[in-house]
Amino acid sequence: MSPVFPMLTVLSMFYYMCLRRRARTATRGEMNSRRAIESNTRALPINVEIVQYAKEVLDFSSHYGSENSMSYTMWNLAGIPNVYPSSGDFTQTAVFRTYGTWWDRCPSARLPFKRTPSTFCSQDYVELAFEEPVYPTAVHILETYHPGAVVRILACSANPYSQNPPAEVRWEILWSEAPTKVTSPQARQFTPCIKQINFPTNLIRLEVNSSLLDYYTELDAVILHGVKERPVLSLKASMIDMNDTDEDEDEEKYGCGMDALNKQFSIVTLREWPTNGYFDKLPYELIQLILSHLTVPDLCRLAQTCKLLYQHCCDPLQYIHLSLQPYWARINDTSLEYLQSRCTLIQWLNLSWTGNRGAISVSGFSRFLKVCGSELVRLELSCGHFLNETCLEVITEMCPNLQELNLSSCDKIPPQAFNHIAKVGSLKRLVLYRTKVEVGTALLSILNFCSELQHLSLGSCVMIEDYDLIASMMGAKCKKLRSLDLWRCKNITESGIAELASGCQLLEELDLGWCPTLQSSTGCFTNLARKLPNLQKLFLTANRSVCDTDIEELAANCTQLRQLDILGTRMVSPASLRKLLESCKDLSLLDVSFCSQIDNRVVLELNASFPNVFIKKSFTQ
């Protein structure tokens, strides 16, 4: 072959890499011409770019707002911007429930799962539907306050508006990056360089990690740019920018590109080796310890090398704690079936975010638990929209040792299904945030029969109509309660608070944020302070009636306090806050946003006197 051809190939690859780098470093004006650059001089037909805002918010894991309003809810991401380019704390934006690491430092904090791949750091997500399926060319995210939370952008092959469900649902990562610290809280348009995919999409998913943020991130709108016809590059697809190689490998290994995961669970043939190297000389327990540091995909790969390692990789002791959440996009009935023989001793299982859009069936989930549920102590099922009453019935029958159950944002479970949970008398932690649980017989039965409860979340449970009755039952039956989340409960009064404080005196964490029916004038907050001396976290967010007397009572009685949120009160003075800070030596978080008597000058003075306390004061520009 002539030496000219290899030289042409090298030059072509160099030219293509230059174009890719130019597109990556371009300004916004230059980005608009990126499609023309990549199409270059081949006289391809012009593919008109479509620009569209999100039409609808389909799903999300949490939000700061209420289920019955638009303020601070994920639904604000639909449509055109409400706030951008303004910066600050605005109710018309989308806000997730948490920020920073404060929720990881509370009595209610859960231990993390080991073996979570380093490339998976997502904490929350939101899924957005757009009108027209397109091949994405750009995604713009309008962040209006404390930007930098978005860590992954994904595209789905399923059209949410199609009448015919697809035979296969594919998710592809358009962009991903580790959490980064953005120094300025000001608004910005975030436009990462996204990967080209081989299918049109009108379903985009944002995943966020807010652990490095100083305050709540606020998102205003998402803009999808794309073309109707698949873009054609003049150079062959095999000529890849070498800078993308590591990212693609990570995606194949850990992310939504794990197409081979299910195949790896099933080992058909194993290589025959005369010896197994030095592994034959190592104690079985030592090999097990070494393998305990591998992720699930790595275990599956290693199992295909030889019979010895296959035996180790399939040992149920390797699957005592198993989190499948990082692989949510690829977990289905087949995955669970292959895992059954390995998970007979499993104690912790995380299936959060998995199984949606038909990936996991009720029968598939039930079969798995019937084989693997007997030793389960902890079960995480957050955002599991496949769950129904049959699933809860199977959980309570097959998991007699269950102590922790997380059903956060499982909003498809019907109210009557929660009756089954009362059968699990060993429960110590129950998360029902954003579910349809009702007072009726379900919740009262749970509180009556699950007397070992230590951590209970009923935040944003809009179908509970009598929180006073619930508080009374908790005070009578749940004497071991250490943390209670009543975020946005709409009707608790001083009567319920009195019953709760009298009966649950071990409480260390109490969230009464956005509970409008509580009034300081009734003495409810004073009563809390006097009856609950072990309080470490107290959220009284957006209660306008909190006053100096309440703060002084906390200073006198709750000296172990670490986190206090009194956002929005007009009745608290700098003097009472100073008393609190002097008495509560362990206080590390104090939110005084929108407290009219606490201006920026006061915050600066308190910061100077108490440098170990993070005093939060949001702003609206």
What does this structure look like?
It comes from Galbula dea. The chain is an alpha/beta fold and 621 residues long. Helices cover 27% and strands 17% of the residues. Helix 12 runs parallel beside helix 13 and helix 14 runs parallel beside helix 15. The chain is globular. The N terminus is likely disordered.
**CATH-wise, what's the superfamily of the domain at 49-227?**
Galactose-binding domain-like
Return the CATH class of the domain at 49-227: Mainly Beta
Q: For the CA atoms, what is the radius of gyration?
A: 27 Å
The fraction of residues assigned to DSSP E strands is 15-25%
Helical content band? 25-40%
- Largest beta sheet: what is the strand line-up? 10-11-12-13-14-15-16-17-18-19-20-21
**Please, what is the average pLDDT?**
89
Structural class: alpha/beta
The CATH architecture name of the domain at 49-227 reads Sandwich
What gross morphology would you assign? globular
Low-confidence parts: 1-44, 234-259
CATH topology of the domain at 49-227: Jelly Rolls
Sheet with most strands? 12 strands, parallel
Domain F-box: 276-331
GO biological process, one term: SCF-dependent proteasomal ubiquitin-dependent protein catabolic process
Keywords: Leucine-rich repeat, Ubl conjugation pathway
InterPro entries: F-box-like_dom_sf, F-box_dom, FBXL15_LRR, Leu-rich_rpt_Cys-con_subtyp, LRR_dom_sf
Task: List strands and helices in order, with pairings.
Elements: H1 4-24, H2 28-31, H3 34-39, E1 49-53, E2 56-60, E3 94-95, E4 124-145, E5 150-156, E6 171-176, E7 188-190, E8 201-208, E9 218-227, H4 245-254, H5 261-265, H6 284-291, H7 296-302, H8 307-313, E10 321-323, H9 333-339, E11 348-350, H10 362-372, E12 378-380, H11 389-398, E13 404-406, E14 429-431, H12 439-449, E15 455-457, H13 467-477, E16 483-485, H14 494-503, E17 509-511, H15 524-531, E18 537-539, H16 548-557, E19 563-565, H17 574-583, E20 589-591, H18 600-609, E21 614-616
Parallel strand pairs: 10-11, 11-12, 12-13, 13-14, 14-15, 15-16, 16-17, 17-18, 18-19, 19-20, 20-21
Antiparallel strand pairs: 1-9, 2-4, 3-9, 4-7, 4-8, 4-9, 5-6, 5-8
Organism: Galbula dea
Domain F-box: 276-331
InterPro entries: F-box-like_dom_sf, F-box_dom, FBXL15_LRR, Leu-rich_rpt_Cys-con_subtyp, LRR_dom_sf
